[in-house]
């Protein structure tokens, strides 16, 4: 049978096939393991909890005290207990084997539900405006009034309350630490603007004789890790400076012409917002950039800048600004000292405290005050707890879906479909994916290509204006729409896009009036502030646990509600939740319940009109049909005929030699003849995404590889999550050595897909992986040849002895 990942509907009756395999040779331990592995695969998810107990506790990650890992309890619903039919599509059709041979979750779902706790009080909301107001913090009436009337902010948040008075009165360095969405940006901007304004205004608000203007000197530099974040900070500052229109801010962020940046600096600027690399460049090469009057250096998202490899740039910037002679008055004779700080003040901001933040603190701070928005501020509690700063906002609801690799894609679609099923429930969602290639693929797969067909002459005048920068990054979504929300807009964003495209896409997502989804990499995990984001989906977990807090912090901002969902694979990944610092429990959810809810109604498949028969399908049949449809889209070659049939027109490949005039695959394709990647760009994108995903998986931080163990990945199953029927080769580098994969897709080819062996050692990542680290460099790790060889030996032994199906 061709190894195309499809299974014919062999009926085996009720009696399950038992292993006839006898294991000979090798050590008894290895023989036992192999035997167990075969049994586990045969039993599959349908095995009883009792049967599975031993293997579960064996697989369950150990906690530090040696006990096994336990999760928040979650009941199985009556319906979810029903095992989905393994051959859901009857009548001799070809069926993908979506529900067979999936590993069981180790999470204990059997216990009664935890009583729904009272909704948590928001931990990052503004304080009550009766108790606190901006004027009482030392800000002028002019600024306080501007905040209330133009920015609709009447009361400060806890971190603002604690920071503003200190930075207005004192000239010491500061380390601001508060949870995501708590208003850190204004916490440092307000005192800076207040003190610069004081050069021109008396305390009662009357103008002084001398008024500073854009040419009076550069007073503050704010550094942030990504261009998006710089632009966002600039947008907040511009709004704030509308009450002091004589002051000017600008950005120097790369991705734009250096010449125009130089011209803006020459024209005069009082507050500069920059990425570290670009600022270093200007400090070295732009003569008009005078830092003699600079009084503040702000390092926003300091740990991220360190992570992205900006350490040398940051050291150079700090050195240059410290060493440069401090001008006590500016060129026009305006006395700066006394009104502005009499020394250079550095402010470091972060929501989390990592080792590299401490290192950056050592580089940049002197006798700094540590300012937090501790819980005591919110609750009047005497014991301030720094813990609050490390965890997610308390009102943020967190869940994790333990979905087997094969079911990841359909579960994601089902989750989005149910999310957008009710009008007005969720308006914006962000999906985090590990690498740029995978973002591109999922965007192409999920977009509605029909809606993007070029306008016909009859359409002229009826089409909305298209933004040239967002043509390839914004599109209506297919599959996830519902009668309540027939239009959902899809966006993609990563660091490999050009700057104008990045900016336009982010703007399109922020201002979108329709329900919207942003598929993105970690480039959007820091600082991004889109208030209407109600849901964050971590489809691929973050590379380091601390980043989880930043990602989910894109929702539940400034006291608003929000939900975050984390996708995990059954097995060792489930233990990951135990190391995440959260103030609320992460509720495990059954993927079956997500599928059941999301696929309760028929999915609108472009090539398959909904009929009375499809309306009657069960959720599991719909999941199978959806997966089959997606796989067929990848396999269909991009000829005009197949484009009409399979919704592949956007891929614009050469006319297919595999398709007949009706757009049906030719016989040779059904027999499993290989299709060259160039025949279908979507297939090519899927393979590229898969390879990058696997390489990126190997770059999880060393301490967390016990949960994200590449040797436990089943490449054949994972391929299905990319609509592929078999894993493509060419993963490259150390990962390929570890993987040593020969496996096929979800069908017969599953035999050799799992990577079994001892984990733990270094795993190499190919430099070609487009794991997206924003404006910085990718991450690589050394290859442990020895560990790879040991694992390979083990794998060969187990694979030779067993298969998942043991047919024949
Ligand atoms: N005093 C306030 N009242 C109401 N809203 C506020 C207040 N201060 C800030 N906000 C809003 O809170 C949101 C989050 O602010 P900000 O982006 O500064 O958070 P942050 O602490 O820097 O978060 P992150 O760590 O994720 O970067 C913004 O939309 C901002 O407009």
TrEMBL record:
Location(s) in or outside the cell: Nucleus, Nucleolus
Domain Helicase C-terminal span(s) in chain numbering: 408-607
Any one GO biological process: rRNA processing
Main subcellular location of this protein, as a coarse class: nucleus
GO cellular component: nucleolus
Residue stretches making up the Helicase ATP-binding domain: 165-371
Single annotated GO MF: RNA helicase activity
Domain of life according to the entry: Eukaryota
UniProt protein name: ATP-dependent RNA helicase
Protein species of origin: Chaetomidium leptoderma
């Amino acid at each position: 049978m061709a190894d195309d990942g499809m299974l014919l509907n062999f009926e085996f009756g009720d009696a399950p096939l038992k292993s006839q395999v006898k294991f000979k040779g090798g050590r008894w331990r290895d023989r036992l393991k192999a035997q167990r592995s075969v049994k586990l695969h045969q039993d599959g998810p349908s095995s009883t909890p009792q049967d599975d107990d031993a293997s579960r506790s064996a697989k369950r990650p150990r906690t530090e005290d040696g006990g096994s890992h336990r999760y928040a309890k979650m009941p199985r619903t009556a319906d979810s207990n029903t095992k989905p039919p393994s051959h859901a599509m009857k009548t001799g059709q070809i069926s993908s084997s979506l529900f067979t041979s999936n590993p069981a979750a180790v999470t204990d779902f059997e216990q009664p539900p935890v009583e729904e706790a009272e909704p948590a009080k928001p931990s990052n909301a503004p304080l009550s405006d009766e108790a606190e107001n901006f004027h009482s913090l030392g800000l002028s009436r002019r600024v306080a009034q501007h905040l209330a009337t133009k920015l609709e902010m009447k009361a400060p948040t806890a971190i603002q309350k604690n920071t503003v008075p200190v930075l207005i009165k004192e000239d010491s360095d500061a380390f601001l630490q508060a949870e995501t969405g708590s208003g850190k940006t204004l916490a440092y901007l307000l005192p800076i603007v207040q003190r610069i304004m004081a050069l021109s205004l008396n305390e009662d608000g009357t103008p002084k004789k001398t008024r500073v203007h854009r040419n009076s000197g550069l007073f503050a530099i704010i550094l942030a890790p990504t261009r998006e974040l710089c632009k966002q900070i600039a947008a907040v500052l511009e709004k704030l400076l509308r009450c002091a229109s004589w002051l000017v801010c600008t950005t120097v962020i790369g991705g734009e012409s250096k010449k125009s940046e130089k011209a803006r600096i020459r024209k005069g600027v009082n507050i500069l917002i920059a990425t570290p690399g670009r600022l270093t460049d200007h400090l070295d090469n732009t003569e008009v950039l005078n830092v003699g009057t600079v009084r503040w250096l702000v390092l926003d998202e300091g740990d991220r800048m360190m992570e992205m490899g900006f350490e040398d740039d940051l050291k150079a910037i700090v050195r240059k600004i410290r060493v440069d002679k401090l001008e006590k008055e500016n060129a026009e004779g305006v006395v700066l000292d006394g009104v502005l700080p009499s020394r250079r003040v550095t402010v470091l901001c972060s929501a989390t405290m990592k080792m590299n933040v401490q290192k950056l603190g050592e580089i940049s701070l002197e006798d700094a005050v540590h300012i937090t928005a501790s819980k005591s501020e919110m609750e009047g509690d005497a014991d301030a707890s720094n813990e609050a700063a490390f965890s997610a906002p308390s009102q943020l609801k967190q869940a994790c879906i333990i979905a087997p690799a094969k079911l990841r894609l359909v579960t994601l679609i089902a989750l989005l479909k149910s999310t957008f099923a009710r009008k007005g429930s969720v308006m914006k969602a962000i999906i985090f994916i590990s690498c740029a290639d995978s973002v591109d693929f999922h965007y192409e797969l999920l977009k509605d290509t029909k809606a993007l067909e070029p306008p016909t002459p009859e359409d002229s005048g009826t089409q909305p204006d298209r933004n040239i920068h967002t043509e390839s990054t914004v599109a209506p979504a297919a599959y996830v729409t519902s009668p309540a929300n027939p239009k959902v807009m899809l966006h993609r964003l990563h660091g490999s896009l050009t700057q104008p495209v990045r900016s336009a896409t982010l703007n399109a997502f922020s201002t979108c009036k329709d329900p919207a989804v942003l598929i993105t990499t970690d480039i959007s995990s820091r600082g991004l502030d889109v208030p209407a984001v109600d849901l964050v989906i971590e489809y691929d977990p973050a590379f380091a646990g601390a980043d989880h807090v930043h990602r989910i912090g894109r929702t539940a901002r400034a006291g608003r509600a929000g939900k975050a969902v984390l996708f995990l694979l059954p097995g060792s990944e489930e233990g990951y939740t135990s190391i995440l610092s959260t103030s609320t429990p992460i509720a495990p959810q059954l993927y079956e319940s997500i599928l059941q809810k999301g696929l309760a109604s028929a999915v609108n498949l472009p090539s398959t009109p909904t009929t009375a028969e499809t309306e009657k399908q069960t959720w599991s049949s719909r999941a199978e049909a959806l997966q089959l449809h997606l796989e067929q889209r990848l396999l269909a070659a991009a000829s005009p005929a197949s484009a009409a049939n399979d919704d592949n027109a956007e891929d614009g490949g050469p006319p297919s030699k595999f398709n007949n005039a009706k757009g049906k695959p030719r016989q040779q394709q059904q027999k499993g003849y290989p299709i060259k990647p160039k025949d279908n760009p979507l297939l090519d994108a899927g393979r590229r995404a898969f390879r990058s995903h696997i390489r990126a998986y190997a770059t999880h931080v060393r301490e967390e590889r016990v949960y994200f163990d590449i040797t436990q990945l089943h490449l054949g199953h994972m391929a299905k999550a990319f609509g592929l029927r078999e894993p493509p080769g060419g993963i490259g580098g150390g990962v390929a050595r570890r993987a040593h994969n020969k496996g096929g897709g979800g069908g017969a080819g599953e035999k050799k897909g799992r990577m079994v062996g001892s984990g733990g050692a270094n795993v190499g990542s190919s430099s070609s992986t487009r794991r997206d680290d924003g404006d910085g460099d990718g991450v690589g790790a050394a290859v442990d040849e020895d560990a790879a060889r040991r694992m390979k030996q083990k794998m060969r032994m187990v694979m030779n002895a067993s298969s998942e199906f043991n047919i024949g």
